[in-house]
What we know:
single chain; alpha+beta; D-Maltodextrin-Binding Protein, domain 2; Dipeptide-binding Protein, domain 3; 2 domains; 8-stranded mixed β-sheet; 4-stranded mixed β-sheet; 14 strands; about 30% helix
Amino acid sequence: AFARKPVGSHYYKLDSWAHGENLKLSRNPNSVLGQAKIEQLISRIIPDNSAQFLELMADNIDYMGLDPIKYSRIIPARPELQQKLALYKELGNSYTYMGFNLKHKPFDDKRVRLAINYAIDKQEIIDGVYLGLGINIASPYKPGTRWSNPALQPYPYDPAKARALLKEAGFADNDGDGILERDGKPFAFEIVTNQNKEREKSAVLIQRRLKEVGIDVKIRAIEWASFISRFIKTGDFDVVVLGWGLGLDPDQYNIWHSSQQAPGQFNFIGYNNPTIDKLLEQGRVELNPDKRMKIYHEFARVLLEDSPIVYLSAGYGLTAIHKRVKGIDDPAPPAGIGHNSHEWYIPQPLRRNEINQ
């Protein structure tokens, strides 16, 4: 199949794919873009992050994505690592969010969604979970790109406004136990997330802030495959904490269009908005870049106003690369640190047989 044996005209071609072990790429002599400077790349598959880091420290790999603790605390505290590793920070191509199941009450009520948005201190999550290595966002697009609407502002932390909206939606603490009720039922729900430490920690901070406005939250963290099969595909959840990766094209039809709600499709929160549907359909067929940009700016504005999700943070891509690799742009442009990887090179005295990542 093409997915296993791709053919292309880019800088590198696939030489071999050892499932669960590595991918080997070599310089493509038929590249229409010119020749890459590094002859061979090997991507090793090491599922355990701690094992990856041990390989990095042992000089067995040259390139590794880092979590905030390794980037800001562990490597800077080790002179021998500082001597051989260069650290890079760029705004990543993903964001973390809290998504409501819009088919479940009371999340079908926009006032409730807005109240929760105001009740969560996003900067607390960025500082406490990501050690400040992230930004507060108001759009599903990478800040600084043409698709990101600069006029949009994130919802501020405003618990008083959250309480007022919940009161307007009919919630009150009638029995004095600190938890709001409506129609005799306490406002309680469960956040489900996969076993990702940053998402679990984010959920704990969300739980604490929502309790302050009278909402009782439980947290369940579950292994990824079970998470998808038991909750996402079935729609059997109240709220999720997850992340979306961003592509180069702004089309987000598969995530937000109301037609994309069948099991296995990406609109698993059950979002239905005719205005959003129309904008996504227009964006797919518009060829003029400036008109297309305006469509997606409006799409992001309507989405923010409707608040089907709470944007928690856009994290930084944190990378360690061995200093023997030269030609890396720092700071990286919006296209990312790898945008000119074909120009990376290793001086002859520093070369091994290949570059590993």
